[in-house]
Design a protein that fits this description.
Elements: H1 10-20, E1 31-34, H2 38-49, E2 55-58, E3 74-75, H3 82-102, E4 113-117, H4 120-135, E5 141-144, H5 145-151, E6 163-167, E7 170-171, H6 174-185, E8 191-193, E9 198-204, E10 207-213, E11 216-219, E12 223-225, H7 231-237, E13 245-254, E14 264-267, E15 273-277, E16 283-287, H8 302-315, E17 324-334, E18 341-344, E19 351-355, H9 361-376, H10 406-411
Parallel strand pairs: 1-2, 1-12, 2-8, 4-14, 12-19
Antiparallel strand pairs: 3-7, 4-6, 5-6, 9-10, 10-11, 13-16, 13-17, 14-15, 15-16, 18-19
Helix pairs in contact: 2-6, 2-9, 3-9
Length: about 425
């Protein structure tokens, strides 16, 4: 069982405050991780567990200030491809154990997850995917039209679903995960530099030589790029070519109401949308703009509000009675095959990628951090092979266009 939320003593709070205190950059480090979101924090902790000394995490703002603090953190094993299902199942197991391992309630709970299907071609594809789930031990359940409305009654009165798939998947609270990692890191030798900008990457004939920041230069032979949607800019500083492109994703939340949505809902037609109800009774929801341009943009928009309201009320008319109280935007860091880049690159010795999460950073990062730390300390985890940064040639043409067919991203031909 996950322990209850701990009561923080003044001493424990002081420890974390000291970890976050602004300080000058050390002269050198064995590893510099750029990015203090869940990926960077989890990797720093895993390296510490393996006895790696002098790890420095450089964060341009505060821990969790990027995509980590701007998402709804669905932790689902149910995916569209077999290899991704196997990885996601291991990642979900990591969350199952995380509260006990870190001694902190990260608010991971199994709300349940449902794909809602509206087109017959979706139904045909999903029957094959459910069969794959069962073959590898994921007990998803295929539902016909009537079963969907019984399992997800909030959809009654809306556009008739053709079918659905449900599974016992979960949600976690991103802030609790960040704080749990900060508490754990406070007891290690990791140095965290918040509010610190990286201004350059030093190279020599042997590869990476250091990181230049606005608080000083850190000599190092290993840099990990864990900056999410900002990763392509950091790679540019190192003269490393990567295919990542940033895309805005927007979210809104309603005033809390009595619980009436008991699963996290996702649909992909006519375009991608989703909603679920939080532990406090709020309903969070979003509808993706299929024409969203590639750019760093964390402003939310009226167009998003109109698009989401129209799409959600067409699917679940009961949502139309809710009052929106807040909306915000965060960034996806998207690769051409929608799988992350995790590992070293031959382009620059000492340069390690840990980015390109394509909307799955909260799910994937803690477990892949464990595997990456193993790789960095001499092991060869087989599961990391599918995320090799060098699967894309530096000469690959990056168009900045998203694949509009969500299913094709994972079941169509790869585009390397």
């Amino acid at each position: 069982m996950t322990p209850p939320i701990p009561v923080h003593s003044r001493a424990r709070g002081d420890v974390v405050r000291r970890l976050l205190a602004v300080k000058s950059a050390p002269e050198g480090a064995s590893v510099v991780i750029v990015g203090g979101g869940i990926a960077g924090l989890a990797l720093a902790l895993e390296l510490g567990h393996r006895g790696v000394a002098d790890v420095v995490v450089v964060e341009r703002s505060y821990p969790g200030s990027g995509a980590t603090g701007r998402n709804v953190a669905r932790i689902r094993a149910m995916q569209l491809s077999e290899e991704l299902c196997r990885v996601a199942s291991a990642c979900q197991a990591k969350y199952d154990a995380m509260g006990d391992e870190l001694g902190f309630n990260i608010l991971f709970y199994r709300m349940g997850y449902a794909w809602i299907l509206y087109d017959e071609d979706e139904v045909a594809r999903m029957r094959e995917i459910v069969a794959m789930h069962h073959r590898i031990g994921i007990r998803s359940t295929y539902l016909d039209h009537d079963d969907v409305l019984r399992a997800v009654p909030v959809l009654r009165g809306g556009e008739p679903p053709a079918a659905g798939v449900v599974h016992d998947d979960g949600i976690v609270h991103h802030d609790a995960v960040v704080w749990a990692h900060l508490e754990a890191l406070a007891g290690t030798g990791v140095t965290l530099l918040p509010a610190t900008a990286v201004t350059g990457i030093r190279r020599d004939e042997n590869g990476v030589a250091g990181v230049e920041t606005d608080r000083g230069t850190i000599a190092t032979r290993i840099v990990v790029n864990a900056t999410g949607a900002w990763s392509s800019g950091l790679s540019d500083l190192a003269r490393v070519v990567a295919p990542n492109r940033p895309y805005r994703r927007e979210v809104l939340v309603t005033a809390p109401v009595e619980r009436f949505v008991d699963k996290a809902i996702t649909f992909y037609r006519p375009h991608e949308g989703w909603f679920n109800q939080t532990l406090r009774g709020e309903v969070v929801m979003g509808a993706v703009d299929p024409d969203e341009p590639s750019a760093i943009d964390q402003r939310s928009s009226w167009a998003f509000l109109r698009r989401t309201a129209a799409l959600m009320t067409s699917k679940a008319p009961a949502l139309g009675d809710l009052s929106v109280i807040r909306q915000w935007a965060g960034m996806y860091d998207v690769t051409p095959d929608h799988l992350p880049l995790v590992g070293p690159t031959n382009q620059l010795p000492g340069w390690w990628q840990m980015n390109g999460w394509s909307g799955r950073g909260m799910l994937l990062a803690p477990y892949l951090a464990q595997l990456l730390a193993a790789r960095m300390t001499g092991e060869e985890p087989e599961m990391l092979a599918m995320f090799d940064p060098d699967r894309f040639s530096p000469e690959v043409e990056v168009t900045g266009e998203q694949d509009r067919d969500y299913y094709r991203r994972y079941t169509g031909p790869t585009r390397h």
